[in-house]
Amino acid sequence: MVFARNDNSKSHHKRIKRKNVVEKAVDSIGRYLFSEPLDITQLQKMLSCERLTDYLPYRTAEEIEPGFWIYHNEGSVGFCFEHTPLLGASEVEANTLASAISASIPKGAFVQMIGYGSPRIGGVLQNYIQSRNHPILREMAVYRARKFVQGAWDGLARNERGDEPIAYYPRYLRHFMAVSMPDEEGLDVIKTLLPAMKRIKSAYESLNCGIVSLPPKGLVRFIREILIPKTDSYHDCMELEEGKDLHLHMSDADSLIQSNMHEVNFTTFSTGDFLSNEDGQTKREEFTYRAYELERLPTEFSLGLTAYLIGDPLDNDKRLQGPYLKVLWGKYLGTGESKSKTAMSLQQSQNALKLPGSGNLKSVREKHVEWSQVMDEVDMGGRLVKYGYFVITMGKKGMEDTQEEALMRVYRSSGFELRRATALHLTTILSSLPMSLGSGLFEDLERTKRTRSGTSKSFINIAPIQGEYTGQLSPIMLLTGRNGQLMYFDPWGTGSESQGNYNVCIFGKSGAGKSVFMVLLSLGIFANDGDVVVLDDGRSFENVCKLLDGNFVDFNAGEHINFSPFAMLKGAKTEDSQVHGVTQISLILREMAFGEDVVRHEAKQVLITLVQGVWNKAKHKGTITDVWKMAKALKTDLGNEIAQGLKPFTEGQTYGSYFHGDNYLDVSNPYTVFEMSGIENHGGLRTVLLLSILNLIDGKFNKSKRSKKKALIIDEAWKMLGSENTAEFMSGIARRARKYNGSLINGSQQLDDFINNPGARAAYDNSDWIIQLALQDNSIDLLVKSGKLTADAARIRLMKSVHMHSGVYSESMINGPDGSYIGRLALDPFSLAVVTTTGTDVAAQHELQDAGYTLIEAIKIRAGIMDPDPQLLANRQMAEAAE
What we know:
Layout: E1 2-3, H1 12-34, H2 40-44, E2 47-48, H3 49-52, E3 58-65, E4 68-73, E5 76-83, H4 91-104, E6 110-118, H5 122-130, H6 135-154, E7 172-182, H7 189-206, E8 211-213, H8 216-227, E9 256-259, E10 264-270, E11 283-296, E12 324-332, H9 335-354, H10 362-379, E13 384-396, H11 400-413, E14 417-420, H12 425-431, H13 441-447, E15 452-455, H14 456-461, E16 477-480, E17 486-489, H15 494-498, E18 504-507, H16 514-527, E19 531-536, H17 542-547, E20 551-556, H18 575-594, H19 601-618, H20 624-633, H21 637-646, E21 671-678, H22 683-703, E22 710-714, H23 717-720, H24 724-737, E23 742-748, H25 751-756, H26 758-765, E24 769-772, H27 777-786, H28 793-801, E25 804-805, E26 809-816, E27 819-826, H29 829-835, H30 839-850, H31 855-863, H32 870-882
Parallel strand pairs: 18-23, 18-24, 19-21, 19-22, 20-21, 22-23
Antiparallel strand pairs: 1-3, 2-9, 3-4, 4-5, 5-7, 5-8, 6-7, 6-12, 9-10, 10-11, 11-13, 11-14, 12-13, 13-15, 16-17, 24-26, 25-26, 26-27
Helix pairs in contact: 4-7, 5-6, 9-10, 18-19, 18-21, 18-22, 18-24, 19-20, 20-21, 22-24, 24-26, 29-31, 30-31
């Protein structure tokens, strides 16, 4: 497949020379007419983007094999890959990549390794929005997505003074590797470049990086995104015209570029999209780019440490602001040339050592050692590279100084020094585009002394190919990394599909956002056609349950709900299901009879016998009273002990009304919440009800389709799961959950709650996902000191760094089958109003509802996106006055 045609235009290098001649001519005219030079920048000040495309080399593209694209550019030929980022890198991995690239790159080829912090996050957000299958959830997703799209350019929050954004910008980190070389006569493109492409692709895949050859549409969209900046949330959907050169698709006649010594300013016009521009009106936007180049390298550096160049994982003040483009570029010398140049430099360093007094100079000795190491590397297949390193900050006009300060702070903290590319910003930007160096630009960069020499290994060690974790594939929850990378969290994600289970334990101190995290996780599961049952203790889920038309069951001492454990077995037809049901009922009755006391083996067996006897006689119509009577009839000490324990739950007694009659507990609704706070002071009843509900849910999940996701969520689990019986019950549910595609999700305020509580510990031990929100530092120290937590110093620092920025985000450390990573949960005002249930919020909401507003109206008023109706409030006041 071929895109566009190859014309006979003059080389890009000659065009730049012609431009220099014009500049000299304008200068001479100014001196002749005005006795002073005419400022060429005034003539160039308004340069259309359409004109800029004259400087772009891209002409045609050819798919030489399925999935492998070659680009025929003006004066050069090349290819470009896009790959997923590395997440850390060992020395072995760095050497593997360096060796593979060194062995693959043809002599004299130019390499660019590009890292791009893209603000075009609409694709990820659109998947998130489309996954919401309920109007309320869709509305929440849209509000949240709009906040993120705005935050990609403006930041998600301001500092305490409100005059500057903090370094928290949603972005999607993209990474490219481009190779180009002069299109010399007789060059066999397929024979030269295709093997190099395949070896490079294999090298990245060996590091578990996804990698694809960038097709023409992808290249055009990327170049347009850089040269025609807009606050649009989506990538440009421009279609390629057959027969039209690729570079001609990269223009926009309405856009203007202003270039001066300090920066490049872009003026663009956009109608936006439904996320970036609600009203659809054309808007004029202004952006400023600044280019920076490498001035000084640290004495030692490794590929793994380049992650710090997008942001320090522990320091909020050392993170980049806004979108950016980084490019490491260079020319690989041939093996023979590398050896000869290295040998010559090594000899020169040896000669310098022999000069009188020079042997005592540290710099001379270090130079000799350095070239000796280079010689060793070259002898082992390494090559010399002439290279440079650029960074371009991209932001709305007025943000350039803030971005520069953040950039310098980030790089200096890792031992790098950058300098502004004064008067060369536009050239630097063009040099940073894929495959741009093979058309004469590299020679210009070399002449202006913007290159340095190094080995292929040292070249790779500073490559901008590190990123942040992108999470799982399904948009159950939308989070970001600390450096803004959008990510999805899904307990059923790729890692847990191949190993372990989907169960989750979540803990964090009061106010850390635990309940909000759990509510949003439940909404994500429900939105993706899942069944959710919640055991709540504090009404955190009440709002969302009612908004979703769910089933909210409020247990309290004054309002009884009748159900019988035996009635839950009404549909049990197979022998296995009946045996399982009898066992589960006996566990419930064990809790009734013995509570938290240790139960002897003999008592367990007697209870199973009693339950089996009632089942055989009365089937699903059996009652607790029937078991009580049968226990009394045993006329043994154990029988009497069991009967005495069961008595409060028999008909006519304290709790009897809960357990006699047909089963009215309905769990057919896909979003069901059981609120347990009303019976908090009835410990025995509370635990028995909990076990009964768990049994009911276990049966429901077991009967439903295996393909359907299911979640049982228990908030404040430690309050409900304190006995030996609940531990056995929870352990069974946790182990069985995976069989019916279920996830058991437990939340508590401390890790200690899971460790010290038998039922919660059973859930914790059977959970592949452990999520830690902010904790008190001393609580972590105590866990380590007591031996309950085993972690090295680095992990403890990371745990202690998890924090909450009030009103902006809450952090979580997610530990799962794929490893550990930090996720940030940032919400818009509407979503926050939906899921938060502080005392003040609840009181304000009830007052609004009492005034006549619907629940959703009250939430929107609290969120500040809907104004109160004065007339409605006046009506309420008149009614109160009349009373």
